[in-house]
């Protein structure tokens, strides 16, 4: 009975290790915009102006990914701007559109995207920096804190998680736990190492 428990734990650890490699590769491909069915050239930059705004601001975007005379549908739902249309603009070979950022949006970095009629995608980041307030006839922008807290205690955290690193860590912990259990049970049974 003891031997079968060790076999089960070892098999579990080896299975977890076998799956960690492909999962990490798939996550890395998704991070690079190369999900299944998409080639690396299917993604292009979406120019966002201005790059940093206060809630309630109007933002203009354009891209050359769609080609001359084409159209695209933009997606600004992450900032409360909904979907919007990109049409041929003043720049040659570019389509352009506008949307308004929600007045109740929290500071942060948000993804904005557009899907071209030719099947290509364009993405860009919009930074919302804080609430705008009128003070003495001037618009003042309240900035959110940026950067790490300098406390002298190393290590910090980010707001993003990396599933590949999490999967690799879980696999390593499972392998260590299985190996440790196997060794302890083997020594308890009197079998030489």
What does this structure look like?
It is a single chain. This protein is an alpha+beta fold and about 190 residues long. The chain is built from two helices and eleven strands; from the N terminus they run H-E-E-E-E-E-E-E-E-E-E-E-H. Helix 1 (about 1-30) runs antiparallel to helix 2. Mean pLDDT is about 75; it is low at about 25-40 and about 135-140.
Which SSEs are present, and which pair or pack?
Blueprint: H1 2-31, E1 43-45, E2 47-49, E3 52-53, E4 58-63, E5 72-76, E6 82-88, E7 95-100, E8 108-116, E9 121-128, E10 132-135, E11 138-141, H2 163-189
Parallel strand pairs: 1-9, 3-9
Antiparallel strand pairs: 2-4, 4-7, 5-6, 5-8, 6-7, 8-9, 10-11
Brief overview:
This protein has 193 residues and is α+β, with helices and mostly antiparallel strands.
Main beta sheet: strand number and arrangement?
9 strands, mixed
Judged by helices, strands and strand pairing, the structural class is alpha+beta
Q: Give start-end ranges of low-pLDDT stretches.
A: 23-38, 133-139
Strand-residue proportion: 25-35%
The total count of strands amounts to 11
Mean pLDDT: 75
- How many helices? 2
Rg over CA atoms: 25 Å
Question: What letter string, H or E per element, gives the SSE order?
Answer: HEEEEEEEEEEEH
Shape: elongated
- Helix-residue proportion: 25-40%
Notable characteristics:
two-stranded antiparallel sheet, 30% strand, alpha+beta, 193 residues
């Amino acid at each position: 009975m003891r031997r079968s428990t060790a076999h089960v734990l070892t098999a579990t650890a080896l299975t977890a290790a076998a799956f960690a490699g492909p999962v990490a590769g798939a996550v890395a491909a998704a991070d690079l915009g190369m999900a299944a069915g998409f080639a690396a050239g299917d993604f292009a930059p979406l120019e966002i102006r201005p790059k940093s705004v206060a809630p309630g601001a109007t933002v203009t975007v354009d891209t050359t990914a769609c080609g001359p005379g084409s159209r695209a549908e933009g997606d600004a739902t992450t900032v409360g701007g909904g979907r919007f249309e990109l049409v041929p603009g003043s720049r040659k070979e570019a389509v352009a559109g506008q949307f308004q950022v929600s007045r109740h949006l929290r500071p942060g970095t948000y993804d904005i995207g557009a899907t071209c009629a030719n099947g290509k995608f364009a993405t860009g980041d919009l930074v919302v920096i804080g609430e705008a307030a009128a003070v003495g006839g001037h618009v003042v922008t309240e900035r959110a804190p940026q950067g790490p807290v300098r406390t002298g205690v190393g290590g910090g955290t980010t707001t993003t998680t990396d599933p590949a690193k999490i999967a690799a860590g879980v696999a390593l912990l499972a392998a260590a736990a299985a190996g440790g259990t196997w060794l302890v049970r083997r020594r308890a049974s009197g079998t030489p190492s």
